[in-house]
Structure formats: C-alpha cells, structure tokens
Design brief:
The structure is a homodimer. Chain A is α/β, with parallel strands linked by helices. Chain A contains 14 helices and 8 strands. In chain A, strands 2-1-3-4 form a 4-stranded parallel β-sheet, with helices on both faces. In chain A, strands 6-5-7-8 form a 4-stranded parallel β-sheet, sandwiched between helices. The N terminus of chain A is likely disordered.
Chain lengths: 402, 402
Amino acid sequence: MKPEMTRSGLRGDTTDHFHCPQGTHDRNDYFEEYYEDRLGTLHEERGKGVKIVGTFCLFVPDEIIFAAGADRIILCGGRSDTITLAEQSLPRNICPLIKSSFGAVLDACCGGTVSCPHVGLVDVVVAEATCDGKKKMYELLAARVPTYVLDLPQRPDSPDAVAYYLSEIRKFRTFMEDLTGSRIRNEDLEREIASANETRKILHRLFALRKRDPPPVRGSAILRVMQKQFFLSPDQFRTGLRILCDNLEKTLPPTRTGPRIMISGCPMAAGNTKVADLIEQRGAVITVEESCTGTRAFWDLVDENKDPWTALAERYLHIPCACMTPNDERVSRIVDLAKQYRVDGVVYYTLQFCHGYNIERLRVQKALKEEKIPMLAIESDYGDSDTGQIGVRIDAFLEMLS
Amino acid sequence: MKPEMTRSGLRGDTTDHFHCPQGTHDRNDYFEEYYEDRLGTLHEERGKGVKIVGTFCLFVPDEIIFAAGADRIILCGGRSDTITLAEQSLPRNICPLIKSSFGAVLDACCGGTVSCPHVGLVDVVVAEATCDGKKKMYELLAARVPTYVLDLPQRPDSPDAVAYYLSEIRKFRTFMEDLTGSRIRNEDLEREIASANETRKILHRLFALRKRDPPPVRGSAILRVMQKQFFLSPDQFRTGLRILCDNLEKTLPPTRTGPRIMISGCPMAAGNTKVADLIEQRGAVITVEESCTGTRAFWDLVDENKDPWTALAERYLHIPCACMTPNDERVSRIVDLAKQYRVDGVVYYTLQFCHGYNIERLRVQKALKEEKIPMLAIESDYGDSDTGQIGVRIDAFLEMLS
C-alpha cells in the first residue's frame, strides 16, 4: 500500500496552505512558520501507518525513501544539551555532532525531555558507513532503534566502486520495499529524482543571488534555511525557497559591507550556528558554505537521462566528503567556489576531533595559498567556552583581509 | 624478470645462516640478532633492483607482494621521536601511530636522522582505506612517496563486499605486476599463500604454549616478536619462531605468577611496548593479545582449496578490525580468547584519538561483563607523561583481580 503517490510533492507544489515565510526581507529564521505544520504532518502520517525514516548523512539517497512512500527527517544533532547524556556511554574525545545525535536518541528512549522531538517520530534509522565515529555510533544505536547501514566504497575513482555502491543501493531498495510494503517502480524513482533535482535547482538559484556584491542576505540566515531542508518536506522546502528567492530578487537588499567569507568544512547541524553567527557579528558576510549544510547538499544533480538507479549511485558516490579518498574534487571545488562567490577569505571549520576534515585542511590550505586566498582554521565543539577566543581570532582574520 | 622465486622462502627454509636467537629462554628481545642480517638483505635486494614495498596495515595481502617477486616491510611507527616533526603538518589530536609513521617519512625525505632507517628503503607505499586518520594521512604521504591505496568495503557481511574487495585485489595485482615487471601466475600466489599459512600455523603453536599455567614466556617478549614479523623476511621469522617454540617446549619455564591478562585493542607498533611492559612490571602476565600485533595478524588461514584470489579476498576482508561494521566477530572472538587463554582480566588498549577502537570498547565491555570478566580501559599515546598514572590504575586493577 502506497499512502501517497507524491510524498515529496513535485506534482502537488502549492503554496496556499503555507504561511508566507517572509515577514521582512532581512530575517534570521526564514522558515520557522513551517515547523509546527511539518510536525503535525509527521504525526498524522504516523497515525496513518506511513513509515518515517531517520537519516544522518547526505550519502543516503532520499529519493529511494520517498519513492517507497515513506517520509524522512535527518537527525544530525547540533545542540549541546544532549551531549552530557551521550558522554555517559561514548568517549568524550569524539565529534560533538555524533555525541549530540546519540544523546538525543538515548534521551528519547528514556522518555526524556532534552532531546529534539524528532527522534521519537522515526520507525527506523538508515545510516551509512562514512566516518569512524558515526560507523561505530550506529552499532550502539542499533541496540535502541532499528538501524540499517548502507555501505560505501571509499575510493570513488576505483573501477568497481560505482557497481558496489549500486549493489548497496539495490539492497536498500529491497529494505525500503519490505518496510513500507510498496514496490518501487522505476517511474516512482524517476519522479523522486526529478523532485530532488527541482529542489537542487532552486537552491542553485538562491545561492546565485549571493554572488551579488553586496549579497542580499546574510549567510547565517541561509545556514538556518539549509538546516531546515533536513526536517521540512521537499514540498514545503521548495515553496519557502521560491518565495525567498522571489523576495530577494525583487527587494532592494540592505547594504552588506565587510569582507566576503566562505565557510568550508564540517556540517553545522540545526542548533549549531556558533561560528557562522560570530563571523557575521564581527562584520563579515558569508557568501557561500562548502559543507553538507551548504553546497555539498545540492550542487550536483542526478542525471535524468540514465537508468535511475545507476544515475543515483553515480551522483551520490561523488559527494566530495572527507571520508572519500583521494578527495581532489573537494579541493578544486573549494577553489572554484571561492572564485565564483568572490570571497576575500575562507574560514575552514572543523568539528572537534573530526579527523577527516581536520587532516584534509592541509590540502585545502595549500590549494588556497596557491590562489592567494587567505584561510583561517577553526576547530570547535558545541560549547560556549571558546566563543571569546574564536571571536578574537576572527577579528584578527577580518582585519588582515580588509 | 622475477629476481627470486621464493622470496618468502617456503621451499628454502633453512636455519644455518641465522644465529640462534635463544641465548636464554627468558629474554625480552628474541629475534634481535636477525635485524642487521635483514637490513643487509634489503640493501642488497635494492641493489639488484628488487622492489621493496612499505605497508601500514594487515589488510594489504603480503602474498601478492611476494608473489610478484617484491619484498615488503611494514612501516607503522611506534616511536615518539618523529611525532614533533609530524605535528608541524598533522593535527595534534590524531592517533600517535599515524603521527609517528608520517613523521618518519617526513624525516627520511629531508635526510633526517630521527626516523626509522626502513622508510628510505621502500620504492612504494601500499596503503589501504581503513580509518579516517590513515586514509587522509596517505594523501599527504602521496606527495612524498609513491603511494597506492587499496579500497576496502566496510560491511564485510554485505552480499557484494567480497566481490568488490576481490576487484580491488585484482587491481592491486596489476599494480604489482607493473611495478616488478613479473606476471603473477596462480601457482606463485598459491606458493605464497602456503608460505603465509605456514607462518600462521607456527604462530598458533607459539600462542598455544601461552595457554599453559604458568605460561613459559612473558607477553611483553612475545609482543616484541610479533612486532618483528613486520620487518623480518617470512623465512627469518619462521626460523626464529620454530627455535623459540622448540626451546619453550623443551625447557622448564620460570614460574610466572600473577593474574593472567589479555590485551585487546589497537596495535602496538615496534617501539611502543609501554602498556605491555607496565602490566608485567606490576606483576601480571600477559597470555594473549587481541590486536594487529597479536591474534588478528595470524588467527585465520587462507583456504588453500579455493581459487587463490577469492580465498585471499575472503580471508583478508574478515579481519575483525574496528574499521568494519558491524564487528560482531571481534566481540565474540575476544570472549572466546579470554576463555581459551584463561585470563583473569582484559586490558582494553586504545591509541589516543582512535575513534574506532575507542567506541567499540563499549560493546566489548558489555560482552565481557556478561561473562564476568573484568576489564580496564587504557587510552594512551607514545609519551611518558601518563606512565605513573597508568601504573597506578594497573595496580588497582590487578589488586581487584587477585
């Protein structure tokens, strides 16, 4: 039984049942009106037996989840308040995103109140073999929530890597079909690919506006928009994006002075905006984010002229995450983005103890140096104790740029 | 051109050209006489054009290297003196093994003197996609030494994982054939598989002796033997092992009292014996090591009744390293080893910032608790600053066991 034909809503795009998200054209939190609506929908879906899938990473193709008639939310934790709970089990010296996410699940399982209210909504977690910390955290998670792990080759350039990932995607298809009781036909998948590509195209439209000088919107506000794509339905998200783009295109933007900055590195999950906020509070303007909460989430489209399964495997396997090796594509993309978005400097952001992005910083630094683009490296967790020190470093960096 | 038919020496096993390594039956460093001999051989081989391959991990099948007529040494760093150099490039908060190894290469490339003298001997590094830190370190290494990276699936239980790893092994075969100019025939590989299995069988014989109560040999001495397998030739190593086993079987061993301990966790590369030494200095006796410098290096044999390439892929892919998920095999093996080697307690050893083994500790701890086997977790680097504190914790643990 397929509860709805177009969960991601490509054919059903409407705006009338949403509040307009643009009270002003210079807000910090554009889509907050959608939140309650979405939460209500998820509860309603659960009541109707629609399966809700929780994911933690861009490497899990949403298209397959939606094509099976399920819904999905991304559960990456960006809040510090669940970390203490997580540290009762996990080592302290691992990345705050992993601890925050795991803590939220622990809390939800114990009927606690500090977790995000989304964890309790999911029927199953679909995880992926990316970094060491997440891979091992998922094993502990599996004791508490049904957890399915998608394997990933780590050398996307290897001759048989796409074939292996494709086999994993096909296995995942069967898992989703068993979960929902709906067979995924090729046309279902093609519809969801078109839907996801549509979202990607609107994001390109939004990001293109930020190339303007001055840009019409703050980066810290766009980060909050990007964070919401992982919770809102594709339909809601696109609706909000279209209105936002229309408004930004039409309205004379406020003047944004200060150095133009790119953030590059680890994702900033919902709740974690510390470094982005600090950069803009200190007088700079962020024009692009090279991260999973930035360009990595939407930059490449899925080829709609191919077998949809192969096209999915090819697109997803080439997400330039630091878990892949060699990750030349990421390095050259950073340089390319720096030029396209005319940045004066790059803030390289690493979640504390994230070895992948932390070590990859060296290659990025070298490539940027060759282009004479200055870079500041910041490694931080979700706490506030380093805010002052990071602020001082950002001040010094911006002073150097101006 | 194949320089020697049996580099690993299965058919040419002789002992006469080695010094007997057993001056006494209770030494700390059994095979040290072989060192100069081996170093001489490596230099000689290089002079003759034999290719020397440097590796960093058990996941790279030695059999293929030897079958191509090349020689190999494992370059994992266990010494602290190259770490300062490495930290000029790498982040400080990554594992000491990675920093030590990278520092040795940096040093060798600059004609330095603090590195191990082995790095300069290798023509090429053959690396593998295991943990985040190593994967990214290899990218930096590639700028200094020719580096080849073997991909690994991370879910060995996935239906197509063996096929993918097999494709990686076949690609590696071509790489080795191109490097040496020798074609690897199936009989070459079969010979090397038989050779490596022979070494594994003698190691089983050695480890079986340690099940005795009291065991005839210190664990800290066996650790040093295990470390040497990664530098000596298979021929030398087997010769030494046979003499050692003969002597331990014949000679009345000194009484070893104190609790019987298993070390489980991260590898202890040559130069790093800190925790093993501390455990035995404090009065315990180590009867088995569940690590890459212990059972993981030799426990499973390659099936000699199968297509040799498939047999290799199956054997190597199932090494229960924490980079694999789920790693149930490791957890159950630890419990099994604890029983077989009649241990009173387990010291779970993690290299600082090794997320994989560190998080996996929780599952191991739970499994051991169910069997009422006490466990002490130690996370350490290569420095001496925590020696006192670790000693106190070991004392407390041993007191609890006795």
